[in-house]
Amino acid sequence: MNIELLKGKMAKFLSETSANDLIKELEKAGYEFVDSGLINWDQNTIHPFEHLRFNYITPKRKQWFWQKKVGHVATNCLTSNYSGSFFA
Amino acid sequence: MKIYSANTKVTGYHGTYSDNVNGILEKNFFESENHLHWFGDGVYFFIDGVSTESPLEVAKQYKTDEVLRDHANENRNVGISVLEAVIKLNNDRLLDLTQVDGSQLFNQFRTQVIDKISFVGKKPIEGYNDYDIFNLMRKNLGIEFVKANVYIKFSKQRKGNFRSNVPNVTIFTVNNPLKNISRYSIKEVYKGEVKV
Lengths: 88, 196
Prior knowledge:
Order of helices and strands of chain B: EHEHEEHEHEHEHE
Strand order of the largest sheet of chain B: 2-7-6-4
Oligomer: heterodimer
Number of helices of chain B: 6
Number of helices of chain A: 5
Number of strands of chain B: 8
Largest sheet of chain B: 4 strands, mixed
Shape of chain A: elongated
């Protein structure tokens, strides 16, 4: 493996490729992207419910989350100002 | 860090249905495109590495398990074979995930791609899959070979209910088989039947 060569190629690719180009590439592989503006995904990136689609968090599911004592995660991750820990 | 010479030959073992053998001997391997594959599209081989068994035995076991899973209760014998092939490795196009710097490179690539997309407020509904990140990396960085140690739960581990994260086999994936695998090097080294 020529790690320096690969690092150089990676740096070039990432500097020359826009986010929209990356999205287009992944859409060709069947990805569907949504606007994540309503969700604080930064807070949610290591959360165990990461795999759920956000539109699955219906009021009924919110209630289920609360029953499982993790409701603060399900509800607060829908806002952009949640400062708590998902592991609290 | 292990330094490879500029170009190397790697011997790999690939389990397949016996019915496929003549086609492969005649036309070479073709890349499989399956989202269950770990490191993107490519031809997958077992090679010498972390396994305590030979890669030929590992390939045979892998195919046997696959047949038992995919043809359960068909009450017949299914022919399986293991093919040996010589891979013409170009080290400039190798991503070696058995090395620390190779794994770091992939992690860095994945993080930067995801961060870049997140920055413009987008997220994939179904989440990211390493398979697609590898394909993106392969295509744009010119990677044609990936070497990795992985843990595979073979029937032995399933029956014994072993749970582990410690890699038990070394795999090697190859793109562009027409260029990177000598067709004349391919030979059938095992032929047998699995009763299902």
